[in-house]
Amino acid sequence: MIEKADQVFVLLSHWLVSFLPSALQPAAAVLLSVVAIIVTFPALFAISVLLERKGLGRMQNRYGPNRVGPFGIFQPVADGVKALIKEDIVPFRADAVVHFLAPVFLVVVVFMGYAVLPMGRNMTLVNMDAGLLFFFAIGASTELSVFMAGWSSRNKYSLLGAMRAVAQMISYEVPLLMSSVAVVMITGSLSLGKIVDAQNRYTYGLPHWYVFTPWGFAGFVLFAIAAMAETNRSPFDLPEGESELVAGYFTEYSGFKFALFFLGEYVGMMGISGLAATLFLGGWSAPFSWLGWVPSWFWFFAKVMLAMCIFIWVRGTLPRLRQDQLMNFAWKFVLPLTFLNLMVAGLWRFMGEGWLRWLVCSAILLLAYTLMGRNGMRSDHIGPRSYRYAD
Amino acid sequence: MSIVFYVIAGLSVAGALAAVLLKNTVHCALALTLAFAGLALLFLELDAQFAGFAQILVYIGAVAILVVFAILLTRGSETPHETVYSRNPLVGLVTAAAIFAVLGWAVLHSSQALPGPAGTPTAEPQVTVMDIGNALMGRYVLPLEIVALLLTAALIGAVIVAMHEKEAAR
After folding, report:
1. Pick from A230, A303, A239, A232: which is nearest to A273 by CA?
2. Is B150 a member of any domain?
3. How far is A387 from A372, CA to CA, in rounded Å?
4. A286: pLDDT confidence band, cut at 50, 70 and 90?
5. CA-CA distances (angstroms) from residue A93 to A216, A247, B5, B27, B74?
6. Any domain includes A228
7. Nearest CB to A130; choose among B30, B33, B53
8. ipTM rounded to 2 decimals
9. Minimal Cα distance from A191: which residue of B?
10. Residue B36 lies inside a defined structural domain of this protein
11. What single-letter DSSP state applies at residue A266?
12. Does residue B6 sit within a domain?
């Protein structure tokens, strides 16, 4: 019974596919899984948009949208209808082909990333040996879509926003990859299914998730920072800075194309949350061994939605970073810490089991963080604050 | 030579042709990205997963972005007023034919270049990422270190060039 609840989607897919002749069955199974992904994640997108608007509203001491349904729960429907019926304005001198292709490219690329995420036991769409590499390769293509959007609009603000966005995304691409290389090193495989299997063990009921090890915790924090920067999410949202650049690289997009960009951004956030959950938080495995009766897909989606809530929380809390602060942070703080994390993960692997490796690895990481945080990020030309009053 | 190969090859050739024949430089850069994507699909069709994904990650994710940045930050994005065709096509034709002859000869005779008993058709090896990793750390560790040194030198050189420009601008 528990087994059936856990595998309910797999069994459903097999039952539906069995109605077709056996020559068409593999293709139909893949098509069914693709349709399931395309239906599920935009539904989660609608929920997370509502969560964001209400959550941000409460954090900013106001109600979010509360007119459309009870507590505003039909607001995403209203947003969708509005986006569909708005006029699609393309600037006269804009490059029409590239302008059209940019949101299409973004949405295609972010949906392709879901093909390798293990969403439950036996629930990966394509079980590739180099699955992690596929996800990062596909994620790197989103930068091209951002550039296409910014350049094709023939608008100085869009171009500026696009250049900032691409510079930011390239800078944080390296820490993103390197913090996950530590996980790959310890697991010994690039396949996401094997990474989840390596974390699916329990000692005294506590899980072997990588986030509970010193290098895993540091890696998770660095991955989260890089993920927020990759998806252009506050506090790294200067490219779409709503108070400076109108809307950055999607200024000239209206109606459904804007909705596609919005969808692409949130679906990308959920994809990278899913990857963070797989790499560091144990994928579809339950937090305690006595909770193993809850279906595995529930844990995966719970972790993804938890990560989305953390994204929204950070957006409501921290101020935006300026472009040069953002770049300094990437190259002078996050990147050296990522390399150090890689070495500490190696040290962890080669010291034997026991309390000593916990102590040594935690001490190295904390020391590096404190030293670099205090010294590296200090700016020498900030003196005591001076006030000038208008007389 | 399956239908998939012809489709991917057609895509790559079309992208490469568009990259040299289009007038707008940014369109050329995007067509070049399409050619890179076609090459990556060819690698994936041959089951070379690591090569395919590394091609996407490096070429589309980094090299194409670099080309695009170079076009953006210089005046290359303006549409040229004169034609893009060169004035003496004969030299270009001879050079392209020579390079094609060399590459074609190398590809057609590649079965003799692989290690193994000469003359016997070797079975296609299944190369996984672990094999590539073992080879890089074992047999090919010296080329790996030399390439790392070269990349570090290039990085430092780029930083020095940028730094000098900032000092000259002051």
Report:
1. A303
2. yes
3. 31
4. confident
5. 50, 19, 38, 15, 20
6. yes
7. B53
8. 0.80
9. B129
10. yes
11. H
12. yes
